[in-house]
Structure formats: structure tokens, C-alpha cells
């Protein structure tokens, strides 16, 4: 089963953090299908903004993908017991998505 979650943060909040040089994040941790999934958007400013999807399962093969409106960064299938980490640059304040898959 493929899980899709859209992650985004409002443009006004992003503008505020960019103006003061702070880092803002829209981050979530959940526990789907017996694993751990960390996903979200990290706003660092100066070209360091990224969307990410990190998934861990102790025994099943899995993968992670992070996408913007122009493309995706996806891991291959990772053996159980290891993290699948997929960071990708953001497209803007909207259109950033994170995925995981388990088999």
C-alpha cells in the first residue's frame, strides 16, 4: 500500500521565518504499517529548503519518496532494519508531497 501525504506551510509564515533568518518546519511522525515515518518540509532559507520522507521498518522492505511539483527523489527498496531517507528541494510553499511504501 502506498501512502501519500501532502505537506505544506502557509506563504505568510514562510515569509516571516525567511525574513528573520530562522528555520521553520512542518514535520510529522506517524507509525503506519508497523514502521516509523518522519515527513515534512524544512524551511532553512537561502536555498536550503527541502521536503523529506524518512521511513523505517524493522523487518519488511520499504522505500520513501519526497516530491515537489517538478519531480521526485525516491530511494530504492531498503531492507528491514534500515532507514529509507529521501530529501528533495521544495518547489515553493505548496505542492510538496511525501510518500512511503512497504512490501
Describe this structure in words.
With 103 residues, this protein is mostly beta strands. It has one domain (2-102): Sandwich (Immunoglobulin-like). It has one helix at 11-20; strands at 2-6, 24-30, 36-43, 50-56, 62-68, 71-74, 83-89, 97-102. Mean pLDDT is 82; it is low at 5-22.
SSE layout:
Blueprint (H helix, E strand, L loop, with lengths): L1 E5 L4 H10 L3 E7 L5 E8 L6 E7 L5 E7 L2 E4 L8 E7 L7 E6 L1
Antiparallel strand pairs: 1-8, 2-3, 3-4, 4-7, 5-6, 5-8
Widest sheet: strand ordering? 1-8-5-6
What is the top-level CATH class? Mainly Beta
Structural shape: elongated
Q: Provide the CATH architecture.
A: Sandwich
What is the fold-level CATH name, i.e. the topology? Immunoglobulin-like
Count the beta strands.
Answer: 8
Number of helices: 1
Radius of gyration over alpha carbons?
A: 14 Å
Beta percentage is over 45%
Order of helices and strands: EHEEEEEEE
Keywords: Signal
Signal peptide: 1-27
Protein name: Lactococcin 972 family bacteriocin
InterPro entries: Lactococcin_972 (IPR006540)
Identify the notable features of this structure and list them briefly.
Lactococcin_972, 10% helix, elongated, single chain, mainly beta, Immunoglobulin-like, four-stranded antiparallel β-sheet, 103 residues, 50% strand
Amino acid at each position: 500500500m502506498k501512502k501519500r501525504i501532502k505537506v505544506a506551510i502557509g506563504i505568510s509564515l514562510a515569509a516571516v521565518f525567511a525574513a528573520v533568518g530562522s528555520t521553520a518546519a512542518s514535520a510529522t511522525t506517524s507509525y503506519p504499517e508497523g514502521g516509523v515515518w518522519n515527513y515534512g518540509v524544512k524551511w532553512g532559507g537561502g536555498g536550503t529548503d527541502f521536503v523529506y520522507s524518512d521511513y523505517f521498518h524493522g523487518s519488511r522492505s520499504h522505500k520513501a519518496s519526497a516530491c515537489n511539483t517538478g519531480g521526485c527523489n525516491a530511494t530504492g527498496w531498503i531492507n528491514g532494519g534500515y532507514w529509507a531517507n529521501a530529501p528533495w528541494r521544495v518547489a515553493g510553499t505548496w505542492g510538496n508531497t511525501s510518500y512511503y511504501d512497504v512490501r
